[in-house]
Amino acid sequence: MKLLILDAGHCLSLALAREVSRRTDTELVIEQGTSISASRLETIAPDAVIIPPLARPLEMAPAEVTAHADAVDACLDACISQDVALIWCVSDQLYEDGLDVPIDEHVVPAPRDESLRRLVQAGDRIRAELQRHLIVRLGPLFALEGSHAWLNDIIDSLVAQEAVRAAEDVIFCPTSADAVAMALIGMLQQQIGGANAWGAYHLAGTEPVSAFTFTSMIRTQLLTHLEGRGEQIVLGEVQPLKHHHDAKLRRVLNCRRVLDVFGVHQKPWRLEAGRMLDAWCLTRENDRADDTGASA
Against a cut of 0.90, is the pTM above it? Predict the structure, then answer.
């Protein structure tokens, strides 16, 4: 199976590259830009094109969000012309107002924000014009490297003793970029093998939490990891933010369908975050050892 993913620096692109490097059944081509032409697609001839998500479109400039939607439209045109499957990953923030119950796939987002509505329009086009598509809605992605990675920014700010402000009244399911990469490859292997289960799927981590709880847990685990390695360090504090004064806003995706159709189990975000913090601490330890050796 040959896959093409756009936006080389995106945390999901880097996660896919790591996952594919461990496999012999998948080839990955990474395109630097965020769009693809029909001629370039013809040259590469992939089985599918993957578009990584804007992780937090509600917090981005409207022009950036619109530009992403335009790039998605251009990719759709190229995929239609070359009869290539398109996989578009999108943020749960398209469900701008959330829902009191877990959100099923058939619930098409209807945001009030104009730039978010432009993303929904791009999704409507994909559904209407290309049968071989997956629209994969994700919780907030976290990873150690790449754009839209979130976790790396939290760690860097804490280590720099900077205060990290995080909403305590928005509930969602943090989602590991590594887990998404593994799931996408598994889903596409089945699709290429004839599963023919195209459409929209929700893919997010388990255990809904607020950004404040997630960030506080990262701080606690990071401190524990570092102290366990003999490093005494003062970290920045986590400060709660409130955006909704009447009730908590819930953006919890129901991921049952991806389990029923593809057998994909959601990975607990606490385990994924713990694994990433282990990796971060090991890298930090090795870097400090290299610096000590160089100075000696």
Answer: yes
